[in-house]
Fold Outer membrane protein assembly factor BamB.
Amino acid sequence: MPFNLRRLWFAGVVASALVGCSSSDSFEEPLPVPDVVSSVELEEVWDVTIGDGFDEQYLQLSPLYAGDVIYVVSADGQLIAVDSEQGTFIWTRNLESRILAGVGGDPGHLYVVTGDAELLALNPESGEALWQVPLPNEVIGTPRSNGQVVVAQTNDGKVLAFDTATGEKRWQYDGVIPVLTLRAAASPLVGRDMTLVSFANGRVFALDSRSGQPLWQYSVGEPQGRTELERLVDVTSEPLIMEGVALVTGYQGKLALIDLRSGQEIWSRESSSLRSPVIAEGNIYVAEANGKIQAYDGNTRRVVWTQEQLGWRQTTQPLVVDDYLLVGDYEGYIHLLSLEDGSFQGQLEFDDDGLLVPMQRIGDRVLVYGNSGKLTLFELESRD
């Protein structure tokens, strides 16, 4: 069940307090905020507040950026369409329900899931309901669509696809998950022909988007150890898709490149991460579960640099903007690192309630949604 974000480090095995814990690690206190002399700053373009934000719950309420409009929802059910240039509200709707995941969408629909285990399809022009269907269990990952089907994955491992026009169920795939899991989930990636889903048993599956039949599976991590805690191998990050391949990470697993047609491994190396990797300047950047930021050479996979001063700070998925790598942390700081060597180039204390969902790039600007409900668009400004 959801819990207070301020208790993450001691909240038990379903909390993200487990990030950084491995079969050989013990829990550690987060390192203090690094002292940074900024050479680059985040200048606010606009700032709005979305309902009660995350309402002190551990939720993945990622906004949906759709060109001129940003769709964002709060835990208390405030769904808002925001003009991406001006930050003004285009429309608002009170869904009158608790919300557990971010907003999904396709050209004709928005999708949200409620705490009552319902999938709602809404009109993106007005927020009015189009259809709703019950789900067999709660969903904490964003539902995703290819325009023909919308796919939602429940906490007990069921993957369900519904017709986007009518809400009729097209297919269902039942995955196998262990008794003990982290309270985090990767959203399904739904392509025209293939849907990628990730499970808490360390597996990534490719399913046929039309029938739900499995095409292949890949093991990102194998459970090891005697206790359930030691055997956690959740895959909570979405694969990074490139031409014909996918880059995947897993908790107490590995960083691996796999062939999308067959699921065959091209290469892998040991890694433990709950966040999706990013690629820039020929390097792969990973926020490790223990808070360290690693840069790997994309060709040799050797470590180019490691930033260790964010240890145990529950860093967010990295974002690349210009020559900088941006990550947030559990105390709401945004850190700007050099892509070249990982040195700190800037820092901003953004949200006292913390940062959880990935920051998003909008052109050369940065969209940040803080746990308190602050939604802000920034641009980078050099201090030189």
Summary: The chain has two domains: 31-55+274-384, 59-183+185-237. Residues 178 and 308 are 32 Å apart (CA to CA).
